[in-house]
Amino acid sequence: MPYFAAVFARTAEGWVGTEPELAEAASVDDVADQMREAAVETYGESVVLLIEQDDDWFAVLRLDGEDDPRAFVSTVRGDGLGGLLHPLVGDAPDGAAGGDPGLLEDLGVSGAQLGDLGDRALPSDALPRIAELAGFGEEFDRLRD
């Protein structure tokens, strides 16, 4: 299952990105722990995780301080990496979008924009746009190349 994932932590100097190792995650708690590790390493408060799998679907997760993570998934999947995120998307059926489309509104990505990207854009096009709008486009490009 080829995927790309990047965690971005906000610091006083700006956003810092790193690639997590999600293949070893067995639950959404493991994913949140990896996000918290990125925040500790960069002294960040807000942490955003972008995931793309097989250019089929994407997910955006956000973690603020000690809060539970929130997520938006363009296409809910019940298996593999998508299955790990299932507890965060509510009652959305497989194949539909799910979660909280407004999780990045304070970073400049409206719920409508996120939903529209989920509906109309390929994940490989959506994630760079989300990163650009949220203010960490350069870090995303650095990790993606």
Automatic annotation (TrEMBL):
<dbReference type="InterPro" id="IPR023869">
    <property type="entry name" value="tRNA_Adeno_NH3ase_assoc_put"/>
</dbReference>
<protein>
    <recommendedName>
        <fullName>tRNA adenosine deaminase-associated protein</fullName>
    </recommendedName>
</protein>
